[in-house]
Structure formats: structure tokens, C-alpha cells
Amino acid sequence: MNNSETISISKFRPALAIGAGLLLACAFPKIGIAGFAWVAPGAMLAVAVGVDGRSAFRLGFIAGLAYHLASLYWLLNIPVMKIAPFTGWLALSGYLALYQAVWVWLCWKIYPAKISPPFDREGLLGPFESLLAANWSQRLMWALSCAALWVAGEMVQARLLSGFPWNFLGASQFGMLPIIQVASFTGVYGISFLAAWFAVSMLCAAAVVLRRSHSPRQWMGEIILPLLTTVGVVMLGFPQLLQSELAPARLQVALVQPSIPQQMIWSPTESAKRFEQLLQLSDRALTNGLTSSNKPALLVWPEGVVPGYARWDTNIHDAITNFVRRHQVWLILGADDAAPRRDDPFAHDSFNSSFLVSPDGEFRATYKKRRLVVFGEYLPFARWFPFIERWTGMGSFAAGSEVVPFRVPELKFKTSVLICLEDVFPQLVRGDVEEDTDFLLNLTNDGWFGESAAQWQHAANSVFRAVENGLPMVRCANNGLTCWISAQGRLQNAFHAGTTDAYGPGYKRIDVPLLDGKRRAPTFYRQHGDVFGWSCVVWSMLVVSLAFIRQRASPRVLPSIPSGE
Fold it and tell me: From the CB of residue 190, how many other CB atoms can be counted at a distance below 10 Å?
């Protein structure tokens, strides 16, 4: 094969990289073909086989950009000036694509054998065959190291620049209940590791097949260990699924989903109308088809649907307290709160908060959101440069500083509230759980994104917080998904009764299992945290350091694709 033929082949690499990225995007809701996650990382590596480091980085970035642009398309639904969501969509996707770019580059940097040029007689098949220049044990360690590198990237992504732990590779498996039980030990990172390891091993198996070695014994040798490990994880997961979810006590909860459009939430003239809609839905949730003996004991309102400051706006405060007194019901709601600034008594801070209100109208507890969404809930440096808020027309919330469990001895339950995207942070959620916590409660407003995949992707994260900590998660959303998730990760009551609608207005009544005074045995993950994730970070640092030391000691010249005759 001559050089010009090779150049034409190399031009397909960017298109193939886009295909690999789209393949991974399809593993997540709404398409949600979970099996693609067990192939896509290997496809990203395959696209860059045999190229130099710069090209590997570029192809990895293209694949990552396609993946994030496709899976985060719902950012374009934010109902503000279209240039803002479009710019944010591009910027966030570009930033996240760097993780795939670095991953592809480092994976080939640590490969233990020289990759032959892509312009030999076999064209692109030559580099695939030369993967086998390393022996089986070397390829095994390489595949394991690639999986560790993937997890290390997710660990950084969850923390850097306030963190964005969204659509991790393992989260695509939220419906694969036997597999995800391992998250109670490793967190979501363990499933990411398994999927990445299997995908890279499949790449090595493909190299064996392309060498025209069709013996199952040879190509199966490449995937047998990740396959057996996955089977072992599934077998260990089944006993957890078979555990009875029957509880000696259950709490009847009414969840209200008003599905208020975001434009109405922003409009002061619509405040009275949307609040009246919320009260009407709540009234039906507590009365329709019920008697005083079987009505819910707890009512929950989501984030963003109560106008004004619930504690300080007299009309709103009186309406809330009159409502709970009339129905004699406990209420947990999301609303704004305010408090004087310590450094300026003439100014105040606003907080995105949740409140516990008793049947006698007393505001018993307040939790202030700790993990704010940049540009959504706060503007960086706005405190020091107030003109930023004037230019943008946006205000900023202040962040809370502590966990505030909501205890209701009268109903014998204790819950920790998570507001909006706080439930996507594994390291934050485990700090909210104690041995006597009955369930987690997420109040969220996903109405920013229309009827899109955002709500399902958000709920997929909640599934892992439930499994990681071994307790139920209740979700109350403005427009979906209002539901509850068992300690084993079963997503329940996702649709309105008798429909396939998850987004529209309505209410749901659920029975949540309680501990009834007992203490919950902590999962390994809740007790020890990201031991597995940090182990992958350390492993990755060692492997990458050794690769660079080895290269410096004995530089190898990686081939580059020629630009012409």
C-alpha cells in the first residue's frame, strides 16, 4: 500500500472517532443501550492505534466532544437567550472532552510494545496486529491500567473546578441491578472500571481475530478474565437483590410534581398562579380517594416551585402554615431563604434551601444547599466584583456549610435532604448518611431542560447514591422524575399511574420503608469512601510515571503519518 492510499485511510479516523463518541452517548438515557458502554472505550482507543501522541490526543478529544455534545444536548433547552445555552453547551462539552483526550493519549503512551507504522502493507490492520507484539500478560496489565486511568479521570472530574460527576461510564448501567450492587463497595467507579477493562480487552481480542486467528481459545484468552470478573460481580449481586425489602414500618408520602415551566418560575407576575396550582395539586394528593386513616403523613414539594422567601414573605408563609394546619400533615419543601451577612449587617445572603414544617405550622428545621451550580446559582467572584451581577442580570446564592438532618420523632423517621444536583456527588452524599438515616430525599427542579434526557440521566445518578449507601432515595422533582429508589437501586413509580408520562403535572403516593428505631449496617462505601477510586488514581500515577521514565531512559520514536510522497 502506497502513502497516498494510507493518507486517504487516515482521513477516516476523525469520522470514526465521532462514531465512537456517539456510541458511548447512546449508552445513556434516553437511548440507553447499556451494552454500548462495554465497547465504546475500546473503540476510542482503536481509532488512535498507531498514531503519534498529538494525534492520539486530538482523536480522543474528537470522540469525547461527540460524546458530550450528544449526551448533553438538553442544555440547549434552557429558556434564556439561545447564545447562552449554546455557548455553555460547547464550553462544557469541550472541557469534559479533555478527559477522553488525555485518556486515549495516556493509554497509548503506556502501551508496553512498539506500535508499527500505519502505512505498511496492511494499511490500518498493521497496527492492530502489532498490538500482539506485547505478550498476553503485558496486554492484560495494559487493559487493567487503561481501566484505572478511566476511573482516575472520573475521580478528577468529580472534584476539579467544583466537580461535574455526570454520566460517568458506570452510571450507564443503572438498570443492570445485579451488576451495580458492587457500588456498595466501590462506588460507581467500580462499574466504570469493569466496563472500561472489558472494552479494552475486546480491542485486544479484535487484534487476535484480525491476525486471522479465529481460534476461540486465542481470542477468548483476551477477554476471559474481565468476563469472569463481571460474572463474579453479578453472582455476588444477586443475594443483595434477593434481600427482602419488607420493613416493619413504612411512611406514607405524597410527592407533588407541578411541572411548572421555567419561564413561569422566573416571572413575578405568575407567582400567585403557580403557587395556587401547587396548593391545588397538594390538596388532591392528600384527599382524593382517601380517608383520614390512610392519608399520607408527609407531603413533599420540589425545588423552585414556591415563590419568594418561604419564611419571610408573609403571604407565602401564612399560606403554607394554614395549609399544613388544615390537613394536619408534615411538609418538606424547597424554597429560598435569607440571612444577614456577618460582615455587613445591612446586607443579606440568599440561600437555596429546604424546610421541615410541622402540622402546627412551625418551621422546625432548615437545610441550606452546600454545592451550588456555577453560573446557574452563583457567579464566580461576584462578591468582589458586584458589577458582574449588574451586567448579567443574575444574582448569586450563598452556599450552606453543614448537614442538617430532618428528624421527625412523631413519625419515627430521619432523612437528609439533597437539593438539585447535590445527589450526583458520591463523596458529598455519603457524608449525609448516618446509621439511623431512614432515607435520602432529593428536591430538584429539572424544568430548565424541557422533556429531555436530563431528568433520566439525573435519576440514574440517584440510583447509585442509593446503592452506595444502602438506603432508599426519594426524589421529588418539578417535572420528572418524581419517584423513589430502593436500597438495591430499583427505580419505582417513575411514571404517573396508568400512563407512560414522567414529565407532566400530578402527584404520587408512595410507601417508604423505615428502620423503626433500628440502625442500618453501613456499606463498605459509606464507611470507607472512595478507597477503590483513589487506588485507581495511585495506580495510574505509578504506571504513567514509569512509562515516562522508561521513555526518557530509552526513547522510542513513534511513527507519524507522512504528509505526501
Answer: 24
- Cβ atoms < 10 Å from Cβ of 385: 12
Q: How far apart are CA 503 and CA 496, in angstroms?
A: 9
CB 521 within 8 A of CB 180: no
Which of 461, 456, 486, 492 lies closest to 471, judged by CA?
A: 486
Q: How confident is the model at residue 340 (pLDDT cuts 50, 70, 90)?
A: confident
With a threshold of 0.90, does the pTM exceed it?
Answer: yes
State the DSSP H helix or E strand holding residue 204, giving kind and residue range, or none if neither: helix 188-210
Write down the domain spans for the chain.
3-242+530-553, 249-371+403-526
Residue 146 a catalytic site member: no
Q: Is 303 a catalytic residue?
A: yes
Q: Which of 107, 146, 420, 536 is catalytic?
A: 420
Q: Stretch 103-131: mean pLDDT, rounded? A: 74
The answer to whether residues 114 and 133 touch, using CB atoms and an 8 Å cutoff, is: yes
Tell me the CA distances in angstroms from 508 to 180, 283, 353, 414, 440, one per residue in order.
27, 12, 23, 21, 17
> Which one of the listed residues 107, 146, 295, 303 is annotated catalytic?
303
State the cell numbers at 66: 461527540
Cβ count within 10 A of residue 510: 20
Q: 459, 462, 500: which is closest to 481 by C-alpha?
A: 459
Assess contact for 93 and 87: CB atoms under 8 A.
no
pLDDT per residue over 377-428, tens digit each?
766 655 555 544 544 445 578 888 899 999 999 999 999 999 999 999 999 9
Catalytic residue among 369, 468, 483, 508: 369
> Which CATH superfamily does the domain covering 249-371+403-526 fall into?
Carbon-nitrogen hydrolase (3.60.110.10)
Known catalytic residue: 451? no
